[in-house]
Amino acid sequence: MSNHTHKSNSHAEMMALAKQDLTTGVGRSVKHESAAKQVSGEAIYIDDRLEFPNQLHVYIRTSDQAHARVTRIDTSPCYEVPGVTIAITAKDIPGLVDIGPLKPGDPLLVEDIVEFFGQPLLAVAASDHETARQAAMAAIIEYEPLEPVLCVEQALQTEHFVSDPHTHQRGDSSAALAKAKHKVSGSVHIGGQEHFYLETQISSVVPTEDGGMIVYSSTQNPTEVQKLVAEVLAIPFNKVQIDMRRMGGGFGGKETQAAGPACIAAVIAKLTGRPTKVRLPRMEDMMMTGKRHPFFNQYTVGYDDSGMITGCEMKLAGNCGNSPDLSDSIIDRAMFHSDNGYYLGDATITGYRCKTNTASNTAYRGFGGPQGLIMPEIILDEIARNLGKDPLEIRKLNLYGGEGRDTTHYYQKVEDNVLPELLDDLEQSSDYQQRRQDIKAYNASSPILKKGLALTPVKFGISFTASFLNQAGALIHIYTDGSIHLNHGGTEMGQGLNTKVAQIVAEEFQVDFATIQITATNTEKVPNTSPTAASSGTDLNGKAAQNAARTIKQRLIDFAIHHFSVSEEDIEFRNNHVLIRDQIMAFADFIQLAYVNQISLSSTGFYRTPKIYYDRNTARGRPFYYFAYGAACSEVVIDTLTGEYKILRVDILHDVGASLNPAIDIGQIEGAFVQGAGWLTTEELVWNDQGRLMTSGPASYKIPAITDMPIDFRVRLVENRKNKEDTVFNSKAVGEPPFMLGISVYCAIKDAISSLSDYRISPALDTPATPERVLWAVQAIQQNSVKQSAN
Amino acid sequence: MISFLVDKELRVEQHPDPNMTVLNYLRQQLGKTGTKEGCASGDCGACTVVLGELDGDQIRYKSINACLTFISTLNGKQLITVEDLKQGDQLHPAQQAMVDNHASQCGFCTPGIVMSMFALGKNIGQPDKEEINEALAGNLCRCTGYRPIIEAAEKMYAVTTPDRFAIEQQQTIAQLRKIQPQQQAELSNGHKKSFNPTTLTELSTLLEQYPDARMVAGGTDLALEVTQFHRPIDTLIYIGEIAALKQIELSETAITIGAAASLTDCYDALNHDYPDLGALLHRFASLQIRNQGTLGGNIGNASPIGDSPPALIALNAKVVLRKQNQSRTLDLQDYFLDYKRTAQQPGEFIEKVIVPRASDNGEFRCYKISKRLDDDISAVLGCFNLQIHQGIVESARIAFGGMAAIPKRATACEQALTGAPWNMATIETAKQALLQDFSPISDFRASQAYRTQVATNLLTRYFIELETPDVTTRVTAYV
Ligand SMILES: Cc1cc2nc3c(=O)[nH]c(=O)nc-3n(C[C@H](O)[C@H](O)[C@H](O)COP(=O)(O)OP(=O)(O)OC[C@H]3O[C@@H](n4cnc5c(N)ncnc54)[C@H](O)[C@@H]3O)c2cc1C
Ligand code: FES
Ligand code: FES
């Protein structure tokens, strides 16, 4: 929107416009800022950047043993391949070799001991990728095999940990269990998950004249890539610039593990002085990088005749892979969510951080939360079956609320609990009770196919549990034509963060969204940022941007007070205009005026989350600023002869506080739900007994395709329910919480299987519930029923 | 030398690496980076582009995976990519509908999805949800959960004004006419060669001249050798320009399918007689792959988990092998000797497949069991073809995929059924017999125990389907 159009508007026209609301501010379903570029192929991802004539392409050769001592690496054969520039091993790294994010354990290239099948050993750079690969495969590598630990149960038994266990404790759980009228106990394996971001890990690096690097990296954590690139090169952080316009998906997989490719590219660029690109082919990406942590969870729970939990003990053993990475926080988050939305009574929850010789498992949407949160759902299903009651009734009974039942096992008070009303609402709107009856009738008349139904809630804590990470920065410039440049420390991976932050700034200045240009996240614009993770991207960066905008706005107001001799109440920013008592100006004209009056039109903004703390020694605190809530009701049909299934209908009601952008929020909810359902159904990771990942490509690892979407899919946002906490425009985070709505699909499958026992048995069902696992669970129930009727 | 159109621009290529895929050609040679690589193995659809082919006085548009397509395939065709859709500032209806429905998040799958939608729009006036699903089952999106994409596909039909491709169709046809292959095209780059024969005689001569050459039909299997297993192929013979190999003929007694007919065309030919085979072909890979892939390729790669062979064996199909002017006809079951070993002799190729018509061919059912319902490889594929007369099983042809090193008949099971009364007791006996027929392997798709259990359970499903046709027996019935 240029000056000239405004200048031609008369006073009356401008007044009329200023009476109207901004159409692209907060709460509007503004389109994703990149949508038009994405659909036309114009959006640039790192691999789409123009290459240089002397561009190098890199192939990373990895280990084909899970645990071994490397006795020899000979790269001299690599150089016999024409087109090869350099082959590097660990000893060529100028600075630090270990790029572990918090604790060591992640060598950029292995020096001595190989810890997993697929671990990087050497890297070769050549004029093209295929040549680099050929040369890398020519290197000679010799090993002395060591015994690998591949199984989480073995690691747990032998206390083979990447770090110490941690326990949450409230009351005396063993006494509570001893007293309990009824008990259930059992164990379950929860599968991991490959991120399968569509764009694989990639980084492209250009050396600078100062001995530094410009790094284009597809990363959720530019600041950490900056730090690690500087450290492996042994140069100060200020010589390294990270630029990140957009990722082709992240989901947590690019929080720590984007650093490896960037560091390797940087080392080669440093050694050769040439621009260097590392792009992982899909299979290498899947073999090399960590995944969602698989868990082995054990539980014993006591309950009374009504089905109310009175005591609970859980052991959550996360398979961290070969190194700590972020596992401490991830296993903690599993523990923090082992209550989901329920009061567990006297509880002892212990999280174990098991070490295995597999790729180092890492952040993935929900960050361990889902693997803990599924536990009470499994347990409550079992209690319901034992008591012959509907699982929904037992779920509602155990929700937080009421006298002495509003504090978690880590002593955070559950405030503003939306779940009781949310569940009632969804039970009604999904027609749960009627469909329950219909399904019983269907199952009675259907010999092969059986339907199942489940309604499960989600309560998810928002904030980084490492409290210091809860900070963010932003940078805003307004240029003299009124156009606005916006930058912040968050990263855009598709979630619509840039769009929301721009809407916030648009709202503050009361200008159209189109007035704002969002630029690539860049460590030279906003420094020392936290990763875009923990669903907190908008909460943190939105607030920081809002603060930057408010700083400039206050300057503008102060200027206007002085310049027009008016008071603050006389000044109003409205729909691309500024009202100053009875005068009105187009925003751009007002900015021009401020400029000639020497007002600074640029500001940074900063934000830190208030109220939160957690004391690890006492295992108590308020790790979360607030909770986000939701619930899903899923109906499935299963085939008792093959274990195949289909999701028939899903109703979701989800709480995002006051939505910043309903369309984007619904997109997050739907996408997360389908991803969560995929995690629990078809997405199976299989390793062979050598520790090699066998499902290392989309041909063997099956993420949901279009027909895996629920046939009937109804998503609603909870309305008129602002976040009680002072979040940006009282919104709530949305990235992760709805992922766990997918648990309703798993429970619905179990419900369908349970129907074969007339709902008397809750089937044991490890995840993912592949058709094979479902068939075995069906058979187990059928055999059990045969036995019972024979007795 | 091959000639093709990149949108409207004529391109003539003489010495490209014949192993180069269309994806690499676009991204690395032409600098057209709108088309993305998500897997380079045909599974994700991010690389979807559209080929326009002259079909009489029409252009037929089909979506394909650029990552699986060798460059020689482009000869005589029009290649349309995501960059070509937008006109000035005006998005194509397929693109606009994606924007309007908030159907892109990270956007990396989006160009491929747009191209699948574009092809769908060109081929089907007003697609229903099933047709939309079919067109998009080979396009993975990790972000959206698909709902807005389906909505975009539904809504793009609100726009009825012809797009640029329709307006320019006559010019494009004229351009394509000029580059229709008249004679055998050839590419060479160093020691790598590729030929596009246009007649069976040329093909025979090439096979004689280059005994180590590999035939490419759709390339949906062969390309993986280059892109995934990194085994470059010295001599490629693209057989997709031989009209005789693409014919499909329907007679009173048989459906005869040329080896190089696309699986999409096979569907049209077979679905009427064998709806279950049609349903199987709908779940075969993805539309992009079926547009390229062929029946000859599915048989010729002799995979133990290929979908069409067990079904065709159960239907008693024949395969015609040809070498120069000599043809011989084999029962399809005899084509497969052992793991990846066939009865095909050097210099021979599959010319066509003959499938008997339905009328005298019993009750045919086939069941594909896979982890994911769409675009997945079968863990088990069970195909049943029984003739039952007055309560007695007169004949039984049963074949399985995924249960042995080759697609194979269940002979013991067939024997147990043949001549027996058609009842549950017989099915139980047949299940026991089936256990003798196979000892499958365990792999990441399924365990041996699961494969065995499901194979026997499918007999139960077959029985129930025949006995009580009104009962819903498959989850795929829900759409
Ligand atoms: C993502 C993906 C999914 C897939 N899903 C399935 C699936 O669901 N079910 C399934 O069965 N397959 C599947 N496939 C495998 C493949 O698509 C099929 O086997 C297809 O039919 C191969 O046909 P084509 O024409 O592309 O073969 P090509 O790749 O061209 O050739 C395959 C082999 O057959 C030989 N060949 C080709 N034509 C002839 C001929 N006329 N005579 C003799 N030999 C010949 C070739 O030399 C080559 O060795 C899938 C592949 C991919 C990449
Ligand atoms: S890149 Fe994934 S299908 Fe081609
Ligand atoms: S929008 Fe990200 S994969 Fe589809």
UniProtKB/TrEMBL annotation, chain A:
Gene3D superfamilies: Aldehyde oxidase/xanthine dehydrogenase, a/b hammerhead (3.90.1170.50), Aldehyde oxidase/xanthine dehydrogenase, molybdopterin binding domain (3.30.365.10). Its EC number is 1.17.1.4. Residues 40-147 form the Aldehyde oxidase/xanthine dehydrogenase a/b hammerhead domain. It comes from the Bacteria. InterPro entries: Ald_Oxase/Xan_DH_a/b, Ald_Oxase/Xan_DH_a/b_sf, Ald_Oxase/xanthine_DH-like, AldOxase/xan_DH_MoCoBD1, AldOxase/xan_DH_MoCoBD2, AldOxase/xan_DH_Mopterin-bd_sf, Xanthine_DH_Mopterin-bd_su. GO terms for molecular function: 2 iron, 2 sulfur cluster binding; iron ion binding; molybdenum ion binding; xanthine dehydrogenase activity. It is an enzyme of class 1 (oxidoreductase). Belongs to the xanthine dehydrogenase family. NCBIfam families: xanthine_xdhB. PANTHER family: ALDEHYDE OXIDASE 1-RELATED, XANTHINE DEHYDROGENASE. This is Xanthine dehydrogenase molybdopterin binding subunit. The gene is xdhB.
UniProtKB/TrEMBL annotation, chain B:
It holds the Pfam family CO_deh_flav_C. Transmembrane segments: none annotated. Its EC number is 1.17.1.4. Residues 1-85 form the 2Fe-2S ferredoxin-type domain. One of its GO terms (molecular function) is FAD binding. It comes from the Bacteria. Keywords: FAD, Flavoprotein, Iron, Metal-binding, Oxidoreductase. PROSITE patterns: 2FE2S_FER_1, 2FE2S_FER_2, FAD_PCMH. Residues 187-360 form the FAD-binding PCMH-type domain. NCBIfam families: xanthine_xdhA (TIGR02963). PANTHER family: XANTHINE DEHYDROGENASE (PTHR45444:SF3). This is Xanthine dehydrogenase small subunit.
